[in-house]
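[audit] Reproducing an earlier prediction to check determinism. Same input, same settings, fresh worker. If the tokens differ from the archived copy the diff job will pick it up downstream; this log only records the rerun itself.
[audit] input (437 residues):
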Amino acid sequence: MFETISEKFQVIFKTLRGHHRISEANITDSLREIRKALLEADVSYTIVRDFIKEVKEKSLGEKVLDLVSPGQMMTKIIYDEMVRFLSMGACELPLDRSFQTLMIVGLQGCGKTTTCAKLAFWFKEKGLRTLLVGADAQRPAAKEQLRTLAGQTDVDFFTLDEEKNPLAIVHAALKKAKDDNLYHRMVVDTAGRLHVDEELMKELTLLSQSARPDHILLTTDAMLGQDSVKTGEAFSRYLNLTGIILTKMDGDARGGAAMSMAAVTGKSVQFVGTGEKISQFEPFYPDRMASRILGMGDILTLVEKAKETVDEKEAKKLETKIRKNDFDLEDFLSAFQQIKKMGSLQSLLQMIPGMPKVDPKDLDEGKMKHIEAIIHSMTPKERGRPGIINGNRKKRISRGCGRSVEEINRLLKDFREMKFMMKRMQPLLQKMPGKFN
């Protein structure tokens, strides 16, 4: 995600690093490029205008610290402003064990039904028992789709198969939840349309007024850019939305919807869907999303994912080594082997600051095994100190793993570039709030 805008920001930051001081004259071109990058990323014009104004004012009034360059300071200012824009309307869903009803709304084709199942599974992972309710009587097979997804995730499901009135379905579900007294959350899938119309809004408004849900979350497709923002504005006029869920974020190379949604609608983005799998669903953290948009990685999420698959001691060791730029091939291999449990390799690499862009074709299972074989053929000393790997050592490693010297050179080159970029990011990473705390 955000591939296009991230690449543009990397070019801008490279230019900024050449400045020895911050002045109106030497940041004018950079601000022009930032404006262009955001507009091309489909960020709302109003948001871009306000963003550029704030960055310019804060840049010219900011004292450059001795430990960082003007370029790094500008990067920090841009990061802070992006976090602020992404945080507008911020509101977190409580995770207490009291019973709460969540009504999920959105247009057809945005992934609303799948999102209901993802949300229920996420609650399950947090120890909250959820009842999934199929109240979409408009789309054929919507109830069956949700029933199937509920079965796959081992989440309880309820609907009235022949009932066409969503009010009747929801009231019956509420009665079941109350009588059973087993559930902490009830997630309701509602009907959608191909576009916002009066019939849809009337149905959803009546359902909201009757069922009185604790939360109403709008699901919308991030890949639609400004059309997603317009959908958000339309729904927020009729319903008291709690927040937004952006789907298909893994396919959103531009990133404009994420940055515009909160500022334009006044409603916070609560979750993002990052893939087709039920588990590919994350809470939305403005600071982490800003890091991804700016191509600076997402160390905190990387560490959290590591904690899900390795013990706390190992996760802390990984965090400390990345922070101190003491990350060697032994650590690389360890993290690499955990990827099968943590998700896609592409998503993990995007969280590492300065990681070179990798062609998805290079991330197939066979090539992943080749990298493992190369590192396994090295001695512990070579893994800890890759700089000692000379021509003779490369030939020995090549014979041991059956891979070419060229492949070994490419792996070592990528690793050196990653280490170099991580070193340059250290002053900025240390000063970012919420990182490594």
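[audit] rerun output stored. Observation attached for the diff report: The chain has 19 helices and eight strands.
[audit] end
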